[in-house]
Amino acid sequence: MRSVDVLVIGAGPAGLAAAHAARQAGARVVLLDASAVVGGQFWRHPPAGSSAADSLALQHKWDRFTALRAALTEDPGCEVVTGAQVWAVDRRDAGPPVVHALIGPADGADRRRRVFEPRALVLATGAHERTLPFPGWDLPGVCTAGAAQAMAKGEGVAVGRRVLVAGTGPFLLPVAAGLIHVGATVAGVVEASSRRRIARGWLPRPHQVRPKDLLAKSAELGGYVRTLAAHRVPYRTGAAVVAAHGEDRVTAVTVARIAEDWTPVPGTGRRIEVDAVCVGHGFVPRTELAISAGCALAADGSVRVDDGQRTSVPGVYAAGEITGIGGADLALAEGEAAGQAAAGGATAGRAAGAAEVARHRAFAARMHRAHGIRPGWTSWVGDSTVVCRCEEVTAGQVRAALAETGTCGLRSLKLSSRAGLGMCQGRTCGRNVEDLLPGPLLDAGRMANRPIVVPVRLGEIATTPTE
Question: Which one, out of 54, 295, 437, 440, has a CA that is 20 to 30 A from the CA of 462?
């Protein structure tokens, strides 16, 4: 078992910033990440052999990343461990939990077992995408917007030749730009929020936005707009993909106009021929480790933290998307604040960090007002629509189980319908199943209470830790 001042789990923007801030404050740091390289999903590395210009075309804040990576990997006071699968945490009566990790490829036969006993633990495990179901969303060729972005950034490959990008939020724009960059024809970008709602979310009280931030975001938006305009990509608001069509793969989608509550407007459906569709409706915090450590969650399912990024568990801090979806700028600010607090940094520095976090959270709040999911989406989900893809459970089966049992609890509904009991343990369907159910639930949010899922061989558990 290795004792360490600050253990950081997750090497995306929040984790890298936390590790760097902790080192600046003088703490010995270990940074763990499950991937083979650091950077997370935001700084996904370009394919080998890419030119410098091509590598940077889809990246943002790359200079910040390279500076953080160099500072940490060249610092003898920080150990960066990649390929680290955290498979268990042991809670303690006082202080952060003991962390168990297996180091090596997930399917490897010679992974090393390591155990860490941190004085402070920073969780920066990020988020995964949320996709609202619709008829045909389980066809091959329908993927998440993030998957399309990952393929473009990490492999230089487009998910299709003619692709539609749909869902809600600013993330749709870089996805469309990335697809164009790797050679796809983008048939359109379909944003569910109406122009009126987008304006109501983003424009009020512009004086509260720092001019520097406004200029940076405007420049980024302008770049996307120019790319879409140059390739004549239509951008439509107040609409959604309500069905995908095809036999062995998607060949077309139906896009319909939707009301302010996202209920489809009858008679407005239009068929668009595509060979792929990328859909994204925001992100869901990855809270498995935080829940295992005993951290309390907020009403929206994110990890609850105070102004210093402290969770409800003494010595455990959280930063980035697991504390609420807000983008890379917020993740960097939270990571810096968490790392400094975890290392016992100066009070003055912590106050400045909290102010920076608050500023970025206010900007994120505008995004949620403009692009948050509305309840009317459930009306485009028919009884035959699959909602739990792992167990192939349809919305009709969920509704029937609810009617037959008369339950008001998610636990009993999962057991009777099997929704959320598959391989992903509700990561894909959990929030959607909850939204499909009428009335108050006894255990709302239970779908987020997922176990840590890491393949572990019995022999790996039995081996003696290397340290």
Answer: 295
Tokens of 222: 């302008």
Which amino acid, residue 163?
V
SS3 string, the chain, reads: CEEEEEEEECCCHHHHHHHHHHHHCCCCEEEECCCCCCCCCCCCCCCCCCCHHHHHCCCCCHHHHHHHHHHHHCCCCEEEECCEEEEEEECCCCCCCEEEEEECCCCCCCCEEEEEEEEEEEECCCEEECCCCCCCCCCCCEEEHHHHHHHHHHHCCCCCCEEEEEECCCCHHHHHHHHHHCCCEEEEEEECCCHHHHHHHHCCCHHHCCHHHHHHHHHHHHHHHHHHHHCCCCEEECEEEEEEECCCCCCEEEEEEECCCCCECCCCCEEEECCEEEEECCEEECCHHHHHCCCCECCCCCECCCCCCECCCCCEEECHHHHCCCCHHHHHHHHHHHHHHHCCCCHHHHHHHHHHHHHHHHHHHHHHHHHCCCHHHHHHCCCCCEEECCCCEEHHHHHHHHHHHCCCCHHHHHHHHCCCCCCCCCCCCHHHHHHHCCCCCCCCCHHHCCCCCCCCCHHHHHCCCCC
